[in-house]
Write a structure and sequence with these properties.
The structure is a homodimer.
Chain A (H helix, E strand, L loop, with lengths): L9 H5 L1 E8 L2 E7 L4 E4 L1 E3 L12 H7 L3 E4 L1 H6 L3 H6 L2 H6 L4 E4 L3 H6 L4 E3 L4 E4 L6 E4 L1 H11 L3 E3 L11 H25 L19 H6 L13 E6 L5 H14 L4 E3 L8 H12 L8 E3 L5 H10 L3 E3 L2 H7 L2 E4 L2 E4 L19 H5 L2 H9 L3 H28 L2 H5 L12
Parallel strand pairs in A: 4-14, 5-6, 10-11, 11-12, 12-13, 13-14
Antiparallel strand pairs in A: 1-2, 2-3, 7-8, 8-9, 15-16
Chain lengths: 418, 418
């Protein structure tokens, strides 16, 4: 699937993206990364500190997770980049043979509000764990992400706050563009240092367990010929013109994939959709387009419909921990007393191991009793629902069934029977 | 395996026990219960409120757990016996098709110290959840356990505190004997009310999911011909003579299995062993002998060696939650910084899914980061270690290898290679 072309372009060495079919604005494609081939549109479960909270890695594999996301800010603080690097990067450290994407730490650092200071050079911030002082620049964020060794890494950007006036949004967008160029420069000079690369400065034999090697996709070429892929991030607040300009400047720098950042920061959902739709028009359709940090089940279907190829969100995993479950019949707040003696499965249309085995009564009991298994099972179901939703979206695109695709999977009466 | 004899004896209708081989005092046998055949000696993981904390039921099955334990006191308070009964008993409620044993609530109630009052009739106690007042008698404890519907249930006993003088231990033992008779009387009059019994007063169709039915051991006869089995409990404090007398009086009442209670209450380990050894001499070897609430990996081997057929303990699951892991090379406190970059599996001789996939470095990171997956993986490993230990003990008994059996499995250099 990967053409054996000479290793001249960095894009060629890191990832390749093929669009197989389209339906309206939506694309179905395949994204080949050093560790796995990913079917797009794809939803990426969030595994902040090298764990999708409560879910063992083999269960994630069974659920069909193709790529998961790690947070550089958290991993940098604990266990630290050097520890992860010595264990063979995130793949070796967490024994996850499929693909991984790390964010740049920008979003988390900017979320610290009181604890950070920004200037042209970068961001000084205090750890939420112990208050210790740290500094992230485009260069140090790249260094960290190369050490963590995800398949896809992100430029260091400034996530513009909402609301922001035009002058503020422009200044922020322009700094993000300058940081994108610095990110790329550092990455190109240091990308061979990835822990699983053939030219890595640090040994890769330290920890690659045989069982993990066996599970790796056989179609993936030799790791030593490959590097990570660095994606650029479009900012520009809620201003369509600034978004267009940000897209153009980011494309001019040149990346193998483009992300839309700075959304889901408190703005109305209709505005999110408008900015996503208009920004996508300025991003090349032959490169993966990644919408960061969204959304509900309806929203991920809607964004895929607009042409987004990749999405991530903490919602399925975080909501699960609060007993909020997504089903084909709508949201279920499993803590409610009405489920105390409900013998039905959580979602009658769901084939996940939770719905196949347990009753709502049992899930309600686990939650009410504060049992750890509540979080485990709830998270497995919610992730299954998200991953199944994207599976159905991909299927619809293949069939060119735009009308069915346009309707919300969630609001259908019986999606499991289709 | 179960002879199709007329259903005259209650033992025949509930469980049957076959000793297949012996080695010294140790027995290897098979205990046939309404829901599963159990190989003995067996270790029973504790699932206090219908969940072995953090471990999904399919994982318990993969680990080879044949029977798990539920706590009547906790289940009575939450979700309540009627809820469990309506869901088809504990098996239906928690979707566990294999065997279950419930304790009588006695031990928990007596542990409440400040919150309970005892008299001949029973025990008045306050809930640890909300302070509400409740009353357990031999009769109500049987009623609760019949409603929960475990395969094996226990008489309501008084767990004598340690230390206790001889008069106190005798009075307590005698009340336990009277309560045993009352427990049996109530059970014999009401055993047909079990939620999965053919003559149950409450419908059994409410919640038996097809997937669970399919997993049930095919060799088990029709449920409607079967009842639960009520085991008697020997008390008598740390006095060998009182223990002998308690055994004789309990046997005189007559039960299909006998437990040794009132140990691991603060006494020295050498004394525990002495009381276990002397009490076992007075219990029939053709009935299962259950030692309640013990112990470390070395101890469960030792007690099996003395002739104990069944054991339960919170140690593997509770220790896991505190990062204390049992391995073939000794105890590992995974929180220690020395494991931060240790690429080795937790136990090189362990075939469990945790040791096959993850490094000590990763387990240490999960624990240090307070990730829920730490509890999940640690518990899976510790249970695997306990269940494997008992598997090896059974194998040794079959081979008549008393000398190898007598030595501690734990202290062997490489048990996994034997």
């Amino acid at each position: 699937m990967l053409e054996s072309a000479p290793l001249l372009q960095s894009e060629r060495m890191s990832i390749s993206f093929h669009v197989d079919s389209t339906s309206g604005k939506a694309h179905r494609g395949r994204l080949l990364t050093p560790h796995a081939e990913i079917e797009t549109p794809v939803f990426m479960p969030v595994g902040t500190v090298a764990s999708v909270k409560g879910v063992p890695q083999d269960t994630l594999e069974e659920l069909g997770a193709q790529i998961i996301l790690g947070n550089t800010y958290h991993l940098y603080l604990r266990p630290g980049v050097q520890t992860v690097r010595r264990m063979g990067g995130l793949h070796g450290f967490m024994a996850w043979p499929r693909a991984i994407l790390t964010d740049s730490g920008g979003f988390q650092v900017f979320s610290l509000n009181e604890l950070r200071k920004i200037n042209e050079e970068g961001v000084t911030f205090r750890s939420h764990l112990d208050g210790s002082s740290h500094f992230f620049s485009p260069e140090s964020a790249m260094e960290a992400q190369i050490g963590l060794g995800a398949d896809i890494i992100m430029t260091f950007d400034e996530c513009t706050e909402y609301p922001a006036d035009r002058a503020r949004a422009r200044a922020s967008m322009e700094m993000t563009a300058r940081w994108a160029a610095r990110s790329k420069k550092y990455f190109e000079e240091h990308k061979h240092e990835v822990p699983w690369g053939g030219n890595a400065h640090v040994g890769t034999d330290a920890f690659v367990r045989p069982v993990d090697q066996g599970r790796t996709n056989a179609s993936v070429p030799t790791r030593s010929e490959q590097t990570q892929a660095l994606f650029g991030i479009v900012q520009g607040g809620m201003d369509r013109e600034l978004r267009r300009e940000s897209a153009e400047r980011t494309i001019e720098i040149g990346f193998p994939g483009y992300a839309i950042g700075g959304l889901s920061v408190g703005e109305p959902r209709e505005l999110t959709r408008e900015i996503v739709e208009s920004t996508l028009e300025h991003l090349p359709a032959d490169k993966p387009r990644y919408l960061m940090g969204v959304g509900t089940p309806e929203e991920i279907v809607e964004y895929a419909n607009l042409g987004v190829d990749m999405m991530d969100c903490v919602l399925p995993t975080r909501a699960a921990r609060h007993g909020l479950l997504f089903t084909s019949e709508g949201k279920v707040s499993i803590k409610q007393a009405r489920y105390a003696q409900d013998p039905a499965p959580l979602d009658p249309n769901c084939a996940c191991r939770v719905c196949q085995r347990y009753s709502r009564a049992y899930l309600r009991h686990l939650y009410a009793s504060n049992e750890v298994l509540a979080q485990v099972l709830n998270t497995i179901h919610n992730l299954s629902f998200y991953l199944d939703t994207m599976r159905r979206v991909r299927h619809s695109i293949s069939l060119g069934e735009e009308s069915r695709f346009l309707s919300s999977v969630w609001s259908r009466p019986k999606p499991g029977t289709q």
